Amino acid sequence: MAGTQRVDWLTSFQQYRRDLLAFLTRKLGCHDLAADCVQETYLRLVSLGPRLTIEHPRAFLFRIASNLAIDHLRRSQRQIEILSPDPLPVEVPSREPSAEDALHAKQTVAILSAAVAELSPKCRQALILNRLEGKSHAEIAAHLGVSESMVAKYIAQALKHCRRRLRSNWP
After folding, report:
1. Is the Cβ–Cβ distance between 64 and 16 less than 8 Å?
2. What pTM was computed for the model?
3. Using CA atoms, how far apart are residues 42 and 33, in angstroms rounded to an integer?
4. pLDDT in tens, 79-89
5. What is the CA radius of gyration of the chain?
6. Terminal C-alpha separation, the chain
7. What is the spatial distance between Cα 140 and Cα 142, in angstroms, rounded to a whole number?
8. 53 Cβ contact partners less than 8 Å away, ≥ 6 residues apart
């Protein structure tokens, strides 16, 4: 029984060997290295012995091969880092906005503040309650003593006005 499973593994390996070699050559970029990984795949497979039953041998072979390739690439990267005379520069992007972005944001806030100040009191209040305080149209309607549809009109009017002001100040 144990011999039969080994023959099945050997048959599976022989059946997919070329596919494995092509796959690893693409992944590693070197035919010789890929051939070494194919051999290592076979050795790993044989070391498992008859104790393992696999339903999809092709997928299993490719998983072993892929893991070996990843291990090799990681080892190579570590060796490059260790043997490199100068440490590799690490650029960490700043979380701070650029001076240009900060200035643009400040100007946008000033334009929007002026636009909101130009709104009628109920329109301004509806916009602030909705966008800044997260109130629903029903809550705003009860607070202002108007209908929900009027609240929707106030908010739409306020947003339209703010968009117009932004467009007129930014090309």
Report:
1. no
2. 0.45
3. 14
4. 877 776 766 56
5. 33
6. 79
7. 5
8. 5
